[in-house]
Amino acid sequence: MRFLMESNKNYLKYIAIVILFVLFFGPSTFPASASGQYQEDGPVYIVQPGDTLNTIALRFGVSSEDIQSANGITDPNAININQQLIIPGLEGITGLLTSEVLQYGTSLLGLSRQYGSKAADLIYLNKLSSPSETIAGQTFIIPIDETKPTKSSAHTAALRETILEYAIRTGISQWETLSNNQLSGSWDILPGEELFITSEISGNQSPIPNVSAISFNNLPIIQGETLELEIISSTPGQFSGTFNDKVLNFFTEDGETYYSFLGIHALEEPGAYPLKIMLTSEDGSADVFEQLVLLETGGYGNEWVNVPEDYLDETVIQKEDEYLSPILNQFTPERYWDGRFQYPVNEPCINSQFGQRRDYNNGGLFFYHTGMDFGVCTPNLNIYAPAAGKVVLAEELTIKGKAIMIDHGWGVFSGYWHMSEFNVSVGDFVESGDLLGQIGNTGRSAGPHLHFEIDITGTPVNPMTWLSQEFP
Ligand SMILES: [Zn+2]
């Protein structure tokens, strides 16, 4: 015991000397391979929940037999969460292999600077064909040297700012900045590029000068979900943008935090789509940033429903959609709702979830469910407003039956179909919990139920998300 304590002390002393040495002479004094104890056989991966030997082998492009033999594993099914595995066959790669979702605004160069990893290693590990192929929302494998502290985003280089100017402004020496960012000199830095300082604090990153942070509620973006963007900037100006050619509308209540909500269509093809953000300053100058963002499947199932044939008439469906379109596409710059949406019924029993691919009368899976259905499980048929807003529709339609729509502001609407009676009319302001009417069986309905949906700029999104989390 005593011996152990002594040797621990010596070890700490050794580490302290090494750290001082590195600080003094710079990291370039040491070859990268000297930093860990497991470098000879390959880098180390820590087993995550859901991993199997096969998925790990696939991720790193090696065989599971090679991982087994490098780690002396006899039973391939006996790997544990948090177990350290040596990954063989990754030439030149050292350290700990971690994975991280690439945030919007981060380039491969930025990622390599943040973690002190070589860009070439990142390209090799992530099977990229070019360094510009960085899609926000993609999970990247990053080799990190555990002995070095991670770096946090410090500053977005302004146009034509030199390292010397940056050093004067931030009080961080230019040599330290150069070394932290693997730069050979001021000429290496590009406008709009992220610079990093060594620190434990992890900051939000922004690729636009005068914008301190850009964040998403979900990365990757998911089919049928609500995309919420939050931008923090104290520079007076106007934000605009697009996602896959759909316009992003920005709203602010304090002139510093800007929000944008976009409905991602439940049938949008998974893939990478461009997301562009622009800040137009008061003097008319504009800063633009664009990056591909990953959109993933919502994993929705299928369901088969029988309804009278009349309700499947395409011209009737189209006419009704066209009638509602101008109502759903109006913009109220004010936000009426506050906090999480409440369930629109007293005792919710859910018959059908949002996003299910739907087949009506065995005609094929050509439809999808644009909301969620509440069945009738109690004698109470009351429907309540889930949040404050203005009633913009209260009438009987062919498909939707007796229908109500509420405008909650900022392009967010809620809809209630197949009702039997109304307690409100168009123009009424409702508060959360106000009685809207009664559950019924009007329109294209296969039995008494409430169809409840949330639409954002005319696109139906998963209402369950609005019932379970707060926006913004
Ligand atoms: Zn429904």
Written description of the protein model:
By secondary structure, the protein is an alpha+beta fold. The chain is built from 9 helices and 28 strands. It has helices at 2-25, 53-60, 64-71, 108-115, 119-125, 163-170, 174-180, 314-328, 463-468; strands spanning 44-46, 84-86, 96-101, 139-144, 151-156, 194-198, 213-216, 221-222, 226-232, 237-243, 246-248, 251-252, 257-263, 271-281, 286-296, 302-305, 350-352, 357-360, 367-368, 372-375, 382-384, 389-397, 401-409, 412-422, 429-430, 435-439, 449-456, 459-461. β18 (357-360) and β19 (367-368) form a beta hairpin. The protein starts with a helix and ends with a helix. It binds zinc ion. Residues 352, 369, 371, 373, 451 line the site of zinc ion (ZN). Zinc ion (ZN) binds next to loops.
| Mean pLDDT over the full residue set | 83
Question: Distance between the terminal alpha carbons, to the nearest Å?
Answer: 55 Å
What is the annotated CATH architecture of the largest domain? Roll
The CATH superfamily of the largest domain bears the name LysM domain
Radius of gyration in whole Å, from Cα?
A: 28 Å
Number of helical elements: 9
How many distinct domains? 4
Beta-strand fraction estimate: 25-35%
Percent range for helical residues? Answer: 10-25%
What is the secondary structure topology, with strand pairs?
Blueprint: H1 2-25, E1 44-46, H2 53-60, H3 64-71, E2 84-86, E3 96-101, H4 108-115, H5 119-125, E4 139-144, E5 151-156, H6 163-170, H7 174-180, E6 194-198, E7 213-216, E8 221-222, E9 226-232, E10 237-243, E11 246-248, E12 251-252, E13 257-263, E14 271-281, E15 286-296, E16 302-305, H8 314-328, E17 350-352, E18 357-360, E19 367-368, E20 372-375, E21 382-384, E22 389-397, E23 401-409, E24 412-422, E25 429-430, E26 435-439, E27 449-456, E28 459-461, H9 463-468
Parallel strand pairs: 1-3, 8-15, 16-18
Antiparallel strand pairs: 1-2, 3-4, 5-6, 7-9, 9-13, 10-11, 10-14, 12-13, 14-15, 17-20, 18-19, 20-27, 21-26, 22-23, 22-25, 23-24, 24-26, 24-27, 27-28
Bound molecules: zinc ion (ZN).
